[in-house]
UniProtKB/TrEMBL annotation:
Residues 329-476 form the Asn/Gln amidotransferase domain. The gene is gatB. This is Aspartyl/glutamyl-tRNA(Asn/Gln) amidotransferase subunit B. It comes from Butyribacter intestini. The keyword Membrane does not apply. It comes from the Bacteria. Transmembrane segments: none annotated. It catalyses: L-aspartyl-tRNA(Asn) + L-glutamine + ATP + H2O = L-asparaginyl-tRNA(Asn) + L-glutamate + ADP + phosphate + 2 H(+); L-glutamyl-tRNA(Gln) + L-glutamine + ATP + H2O = L-glutaminyl-tRNA(Gln) + L-glutamate + ADP + phosphate + H(+).
Length: 478
């Protein structure tokens, strides 16, 4: 039986986190009223002229540096001509002949332990198109131009990936690089990161690539993985049946787990590219490039190593915390305040993760401040409040970002620190529960848990469990 190899390359579009669009001053904010973030430039009105947003160039160059690319210090824009209803100018300003970044790579490691370098052919800047809104009940479509002119970078990989697992590892690494740079939030569900998959199959050992197809409409990593497996099987079935794979663009339907043809794949000449006449060439000076390099942040791999060495965190903790920039920032600022990295890690990885899961939240949606988390940790560590109260207070911090010191004071949640009164309460509970005392002395050490529970109940949860255990053992072991 023939064995087949999958060959995959990606075109990843990333919307940049500028406040305004690439060629005009309109807002890039997501979710505005349709056609409210528009002007003559981004709606393609006759006579309007584009003016390049400098921040777009800085973000593009920063991503290129972080992905080991060569920066094209003298580059320009080109005009890509095509008609589509959400493209108001009937052309797109992009880069074909002199993209800003070339010949890079990023190193990946899959969950199964495969390590390899994925080549990046180029990164180029361009403007996004608008969005078609289809009428589910009729036969018409409406156009929202809010997204038209939002700045994009397109990151084009080499065809170096051989499985869905490698693709996901590449995308996750790329997303973290861009997020750490602050160049984009990379929210797939909002379209600020989108991937088109170019895929072909060939017999194992064959020198030449097979005919590739391009799949669009992929808005989650799971959908991308399913689409790759589905397209691989479809192409193999065609080849096994003696039919030809057609070079085309296909649309993936994740609900039906099926792709269907959209159009035959165009070549570059079909777009009639020519130099963009309304924009001057971009000159990136050595000084400007050095400044962009100087502002590169500490990325995930370096941060992971530092968390283990500097904060003495286990690899598991460091891996989870550095896997999201917002969590990493929250961890570092909180630790700087309370100087207790392991406790900060525990609160983020246990209680924070639990509440995020219950509320179906992403780390970027966390609203509580590191200052209030640090205050809570200090209250718990100094035994002003016990662990059960700390969890109760944290839920209030998580939901409302309350000041824990004020909340504990106002609600009378401090531990009862009168050791004499606590000892009297425990002696009474021991006297009232002779069976538990007998069980403890006969070797049933779990019996002490019942007595601790009765003490907590009697003190309305305000006593410190550690202190209760200590006093109980002193009394029981006499």
């Amino acid at each position: 039986m023939k064995q087949y190899e999958t060959v995959i390359g990606l075109e990843v579009h990333v919307e940049l986190a500028t406040k305004t669009k690439i060629f005009c001053g309109c807002s890039t904010e997501f979710g505005g009223k349709p056609n409210s973030h528009t002007c003559p430039v981004c709606t393609g009105m006759p006579g309007s002229l584009p003016v390049l947003n400098k921040k777009v160039v800085e973000y593009a160059a920063a991503v290129g540096i972080a992905t080991n690319c060569t920066i094209t210090q003298n580059c320009k824009f080109d005009r890509k001509n095509y008609f589509y209803p959400d493209n108001p100018q009937n052309y797109q300003i992009s880069q074909l002949y002199q993209p800003i970044c070339r010949n890079g790579h990023i190193d990946i490691e899959t969950e199964s332990g495969v390590k390899k370098s994925i080549g990046i052919h180029e990164i180029h800047m361009e403007e996004d198109a608008g969005k078609l809104v289809h009428d589910e009940w009729g036969e018409s479509s409406l156009v929202d131009f809010n997204r038209s002119g939002v700045p994009l970078i397109e990151i084009v990989s080499e065809p170096d990936m051989r499985s869905a697992e490698e693709v996901i590892a590449y995308l996750e690494k790329l997303r973290l690089i861009v997020q750490y740079l602050g160049a984009s939030d990379c929210k797939l569900q909002e379209g600020s990161m989108r991937a088109d998959v170019n895929l072909s199959v060939r017999e194992v050992g064959a020198a030449e690539f097979g005919t590739r197809t391009e799949m669009k409409n992929l808005n989650s990593f799971k959908a991308i993985a399913r689409a790759i497996e589905g397209e691989r099987e479809r192409q193999i079935d065609l080849i096994e049946a003696g039919e030809k794979v057609v070079q085309e663009t296909r649309r993936w339907d994740d609900t039906k787990e099926y792709s269907y043809a959209m159009r035959s794949k165009e070549d570059a000449q079909d777009y009639r590219y020519f130099p963009e006449p309304d924009l001057v060439p971009i000159i990136i000076s050595d000084e400007w490039l050095d400044e962009i390099k100087k502002n590169q942040p500490e990325f995930r791999d370096e941060k992971f190593k530092r968390y283990i060495e500097e904060y003495k965190l286990p690899e598991y903790d460091a891996d989870i915390l550095t896997g999201n920039k917002h969590l990493a920032d929250l961890f570092e600022v909180t630790t700087a305040i309370c100087n207790n990295p392991k406790k900060v890690s525990n609160w983020l990885m246990v209680e924070t993760m639990r509440l995020m899961k219950e509320n179906e939240m992403e780390p970027e949606q966390l609203k509580f401040s590191p200052e209030n988390l640090a205050k809570l940790i200090n209250l718990a560590e100094s035994r002003v409040i016990n662990s059960s109260v700390a969890k109760e207070v944290f839920e209030k911090i998580f939901n409302e970002d309350i000041d824990p010191e004020k909340y504990v004071e106002e609600n009378g949640l401090k531990n009862d620190t009168d050791d004499g009164a606590l000892k009297e309460t425990i002696e009474k509970i021991v006297a009232d529960n002779p069976q538990s005392v007998e069980d403890y002395h006969s070797g049933k050490k779990k019996a002490i848990g019942f007595l601790v529970g009765q003490t907590m109940k009697a003190t309305q949860g305000k006593a410190d469990p550690g202190m209760i255990n200590q006093i109980l053992k002193e009394i029981l072991d006499k």
